């Protein structure tokens, strides 16, 4: 959320939690619906089961707490769930998706006290738990359905079989050669997570920046933080490193830049701190992709930067009027 910490008095902008969450949900819808279209009813079942599980857990926790923070219908649990399912394989078993949503709400959010109290991004926390607990299911990537099959630009990515994603293939083979068309990659019509449509995520993110829902500093810094080392590495070894633009368009980078790293709870509030935070996320994503055991580094990078976010906040916060440093 685009906010600055300034001295009082303050004027309420009219932005509420519910309104903020609704705008984030609307921004996610194009990529999510396109993913459901590509991967069919199994993806839809995963989304529905996860939402029901998250809302049930949210309701249960608020019933137990004497002073619940937040509201069941404020949209925060729904946003967390949608971020989680958009980062999962499209045909991930629905009951495991429901478990993941419960982990996100219970262990990622409510255990810290509820809305606005969590230290780590709940969706990414749940994704890492699922990745460690169910590695086979979390690395099974089905091929998408044909998209406008009469157009040859999409025909090269449909082979009807499960297999590695582009990042996984690069990690396994050590080769940067790809047979995925550029336009198909930009639309996310390839093997990957449910919400991996870079162009639709970019449009949704741009709309949120225009509406002042997220801070552009984190999003742009994250992209730059990945783009600069990607360019250097590609210039050194173009045979084994993806093109910088392909690096940005692959995996969950766009989802991280506009929808995950910009979480106002787990990111710094100072403008300078947001630059550092975004750059750190982008750099870690690149390093994990290149040197890590996993082809995708978004979840790990976000959680690591969540851990150092309080330190960044302390080092870059505004000096209070009259305060002696």
Q: Quick gist of this model?
A:
The protein is 58% helix and 0% strand.
Structural classification: mainly alpha
Low-confidence stretches: none
The main pleated sheet reads as: none
Strand percentage, roughly? under 5%
- End-to-end Cα distance, whole Å, is 28 Å
Order of helices and strands: HHHHHHHHHHHHHH
State Rg. Answer: 20 Å
Number of helices: 14
Written account of the structure:
The protein is mostly helical and 325 residues long. The protein has 14 helices and no strands. The longest helix has 24 residues, at 41-64. The protein is globular. The mean pLDDT is 86.
Based on the model shown, name its key terms.
325 residues; mainly alpha
List the SSEs and their pairings.
Blueprint: H1 17-39, H2 41-64, H3 76-86, H4 94-106, H5 122-133, H6 152-155, H7 166-173, H8 182-187, H9 198-210, H10 216-236, H11 244-249, H12 253-260, H13 271-291, H14 298-316
Helix pairs in contact: 1-2, 1-3, 1-9, 2-3, 2-4, 3-4, 3-5, 4-5, 5-14, 9-12, 10-12, 10-13, 13-14
